[in-house]
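2024-03-11 09:14:02 INFO worker-7 job=invfold-0412 stage=load source=structure_tokens
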């Protein structure tokens, strides 16, 4: 009996050892990702949410969404169809979210950039450089709200970024549909031919179900660009971006007494965006006026800690992830909301500023200077990197380290400070690019 048991155990061990390399090899093989091919058109569809133009029927529908939650790996309980068109000016996305009972569609809010995770919704992400790290997010719900944001380093979605695009939706007896038009000037991408990373997510709220076109594990979200599918066949001319937003204001004050003069106080300023290259943008501002910026949401602080209000000023938003130093709201050594405030929280007018951000020869480039504050960095997203953060007034170049170039500030007085010192903070982090 003992000999038979030993023989059986030995055979089992030999079989396990023999098949173990095969199992490892199967696990090591990359999971194939879906591929989409858009249809180039000459006549743009009318954005009304109907999807009844002939060009929508001529392109292949992307289907086969897979659940990430609650039943990971199973097909979605309701079919979703996505169609993609493009011309020389915009990307068009048509979505059909089938629903056996549209009367049960869940809609909570109708404000722009409202969170979409607690209602029936659809979101998509474009990794326009196919670096598997950064992307643009667009989404909507059944009533057609606009949700957009940017993802940096496969992190959370920064919903403070607002692009220029449009979407319309309709609800019918068997589904709800959405029709997107995203101007190419809203995106940043390289020269043709382009291959983009792309993924789509549908939230089917009454089943608490999240499903993706390119499958993801439950622990990930739409920002997981290393697992996104591909959008191939694009032949887009990368436009050089230029926008200017000037303003002029004035006020007059007069004491109506004999001989009194009228005091006139004119003022003007301008914000502008220049496309230095197809993937590198320069934002400049003079005599900045932030009166048009959305006000902060009221919060009641019942703790001993300061409240954190997100950055909403457009000048600081695009590619803001390039300037992130730390771990988001938990530890953020560079927080742009403090630009324009002194140590006591009083306003300090920003007379001029410049901001260079984007990509150059495979590097993520970010440089920000606002009188009187400068912070900058060049990172490649690979290797060990030292990142600077300071409140200062001048800029310097540091040595190359792990194929990365540092540009940091020289200590200088913080505006309103009487000590003549600056606050310096350095962090070291290891970042690996996912391929």
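2024-03-11 09:14:09 INFO worker-7 stage=emit residues=435
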């Amino acid at each position: 009996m003992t000999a038979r048991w030993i023989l059986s155990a030995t055979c089992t061990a030999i079989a396990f050892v023999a098949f173990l390399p095969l199992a490892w090899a199967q696990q090591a093989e990359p999971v194939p990702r879906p591929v989409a091919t858009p249809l180039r058109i000459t006549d743009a569809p009318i954005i009304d949410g109907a999807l009844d133009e002939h060009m929508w029927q001529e392109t292949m529908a992307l289907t086969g969404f897979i659940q990430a939650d609650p039943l990971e790996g199973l097909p979605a309980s309701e079919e979703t169809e996505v169609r993609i068109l493009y011309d020389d000016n915009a990307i068009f996305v048509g979505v059909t979210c089938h629903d056996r009972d549209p009367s049960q569609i869940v809609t909570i809010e109708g404000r722009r950039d409202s969170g979409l995770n607690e209602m029936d919704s659809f979101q998509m992400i474009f990794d326009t450089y196919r670096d598997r790290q950064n992307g643009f997010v667009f989404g909507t719900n059944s009533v057609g709200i606009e949700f957009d944001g940017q993802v940096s380093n496969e992190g959370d979605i920064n919903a403070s970024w607002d692009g220029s695009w449009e979407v319309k939706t309709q609800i019918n007896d068997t589904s709800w549909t959405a029709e997107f038009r995203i101007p190419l000037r809203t995106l940043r991408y390289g020269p043709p031919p382009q291959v983009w990373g792309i993924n789509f997510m549908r939230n089917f709220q009454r089943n608490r179900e999240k499903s993706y076109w390119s499958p993801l594990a439950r622990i990930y979200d739409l920002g997981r660009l290393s697992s996104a599918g591909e959008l191939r066949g694009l032949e887009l001319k990368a436009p050089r971006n230029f926008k200017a937003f000037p303003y002029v204001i004035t006020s007059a004050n007069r004491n109506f007494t004999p001989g009194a003069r009228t005091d006139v106080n004119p003022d003007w300023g301008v914000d502008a965006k220049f496309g230095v290259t197809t993937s590198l943008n320069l934002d400049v501002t003079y005599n900045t006026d932030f009166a048009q910026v959305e006000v902060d949401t009221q919060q009641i602080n019942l703790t001993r800690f300061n409240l954190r209000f997100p950055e909403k000023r457009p000048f600081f938003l695009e590619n803001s992830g390039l300037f992130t130093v730390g771990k988001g709201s938990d530890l953020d050594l560079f927080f742009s909301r403090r630009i324009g405030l002194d140590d006591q929280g009083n306003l300090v007018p920003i007379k001029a500023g410049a901001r260079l951000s984007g990509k150059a020869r495979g590097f993520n480039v970010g440089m920000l200077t606002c009188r009187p504050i400068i912070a900058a960095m060049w990172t490649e997203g690979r290797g060990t990197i030292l990142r600077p953060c300071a409140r200062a007034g001048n800029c310097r170049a540091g040595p190359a380290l792990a194929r990365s170039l540092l540009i940091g500030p020289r200590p200088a007085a913080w505006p309103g400070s009487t000590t003549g010192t600056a606050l310096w903070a350095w962090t070291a982090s290891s970042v690996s690019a996912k391929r």
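2024-03-11 09:14:09 INFO worker-7 stage=report msg="The chain has two helices and 26 strands."
2024-03-11 09:14:10 INFO worker-7 job finished
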